UniProtKB/TrEMBL annotation:
It comes from Planococcus lenghuensis. The keyword Signal does not apply. This is Recombinase RarA. It holds the Pfam family MgsA_C. The keyword ATP-binding applies.
Length: 427
């Protein structure tokens, strides 16, 4: 057993040994009480890597008396599922843990779903992806419990590390290890709530440290080296990555520079510069928009500079762009207007393009009635430029207003022009 990774050895054996996730499977929860009373419901466990999905499944299996089978949907085939079904027929009921359940294919589902529905197979599925986006509805409908797990707190990770250091059977308790509370805290902070990474770093640090007089002495620089080697910032394309992008945009929209910088830094640690610059460009036009039209050009220039510089220097122009967007006036009026127009089209509010707006640059256009267009530039209106009172919308949609200006920043002036032109049309 000592040849297995520390993170594997330290998995909880029963639900009473689970550290963290008190709101999901703590002693006061309904799920805990059901399991203790012998009832295991089918469920989906959703959350980032390393926060306890697999551990909880094994802890439930250790608490129950059901035959337990673990599969991974990325490597299992129909034959594996058939073996689970056969086991259920022989024993009457089996507990199946299916990791990466969002990769479940149709053949596996067809073989397994009726037995999950009948209760002969209790299914615990684990996924890093949002189950409402990536797990088949047929699976979701048969899982009465969908539990979203959260990152462990630093206190939870400290407790986990201390448990591993003291456990003589499964952990490192048979070794004399000189590690300070501050160093344990550093490992906990560096793991960012990921139990697996915390224990992997701890094990790596111990093996990389010098031993003298039978005592392993942990040095700070070894901890820092191992944290850099293992990495602590999660997946690049999973749900957590998109949650970070979402949090960045919402922080900018809410004008919170500090929060926006935090999420930008977290995203850049993942290293996917393309995804970050793409989202920043969207934000410049979606959230700042007409209130500060120059910001779009500034953000584009910053993104182009970031692409040319590459990381780590790319963080500098991107930080400028994020700060400017946070502190700029905000307007989403333009994109709301085009969405409103699109909704009207889908609702059937369409009509023929007015004849005077149709293409008239060919012989025969007059015969088709494509005449009557008046060139606005020929009719100056004060300092505005040119304007004439003529219809542009199809007759069926005429009079519909899609654009509602926001009285913020530069858009105040645009809103005034918009309202003035409306009074001209009324005349």
């Amino acid at each position: 057993m000592q040849n297995e990774p520390l993170a594997f050895r330290m998995r909880p054996r029963t639900i009473d040994e689970v550290i963290g996730q008190e709101t999901v499977i703590g002693p006061s929860t309904a799920l805990y009480k059901m399991i203790k009373n012998g009832h295991i419901p089918s469920m989906l466990l959703y959350g980032e890597p390393g926060i306890g999905k697999t551990s909880i499944a094994y802890a439930i299996a250790g608490t129950s008396e059901l035959p337990f089978i673990a599969l991974n949907a990325t490597t299992s085939g129909k034959k594996d599922v058939e073996e689970v079904v056969n086991e259920a027929r022989l024993t009457g009921k089996v507990l199946l843990f299916l990791d990466e359940i969002h990769r479940f294919n149709k053949l596996q589902q067809d073989a397994l779903l009726p037995h999950v529905e009948s209760g002969s197979i209790v299914l615990i599925g684990a996924t890093t992806e949002n189950p409402f986006h990536d797990v088949n509805p047929a699976i979701r409908s048969r899982c009465g419990e969908i539990k979203q797990l959260k990152r462990l707190t630093e206190a939870h990770v400290v407790k986990l590390i201390e448990s591993a250091l003291n456990d003589k059977e499964r952990g490192l308790g048979r070794q004399s290890i000189n590690i300070s509370p501050e160093q344990i805290e550093r490992l906990a902070v560096g793991s960012i709530g990921d139990a697996r990474k915390a224990l992997t770093m701890l094990e790596s640090v111990v093996f990389a440290s010098d031993e003298a007089g039978g005592i392993v002495r942990i040095e700070d620089d070894i901890i820092e080296q191992m944290m850099k080697r293992i990495g602590v910032f999660g997946d690049k394309k999973g749900s957590h990555f998109y949650n970070l992008l979402s949090a960045l945009q919402k922080s900018v929209r809410g004008s919170d520079v500090d929060a926006a910088m935090y999420y930008l830094a977290h995203l850049l640690e993942n290293g996917d510069l393309t995804a970050v610059t793409r989202r920043l460009l969207v934000m410049a036009y979606e959230d700042v928009g007409l209130a500060a039209p120059h910001v779009g050009a500034h953000v584009l220039a910053a993104c182009q500079a970031a692409d040319r510089l590459g990381l780590p220097e790319a963080r500098i122009p991107l930080a400028n762009a994020v700060a400017e967007m946070c502190l700029s006036p905000k307007s989403n009026s333009a994109y709301r207007a085009v969405d409103a127009a699109s909704a009207a089209i889908h609702a059937g509010k369409t009509g023929d393009i007015p004849p005077h707006l149709r293409d008239g640059h060919y012989a025969g256009a007059k015969e088709l009635g494509h005449v009557g267009y008046r060139y606005p530039h020929d009719t100056p209106v004060g300092s505005f430029g040119g304007w004439v009172d003529q219809d542009y919308l199809p007759e069926k949609v005429r009079g519909t207003a899609f654009y509602e200006p926001v009285l913020a920043g530069d858009e105040k002036k645009l809103a005034g022009i918009y309202e003035k032109l409306k009074t001209f049309r009324k005349k």
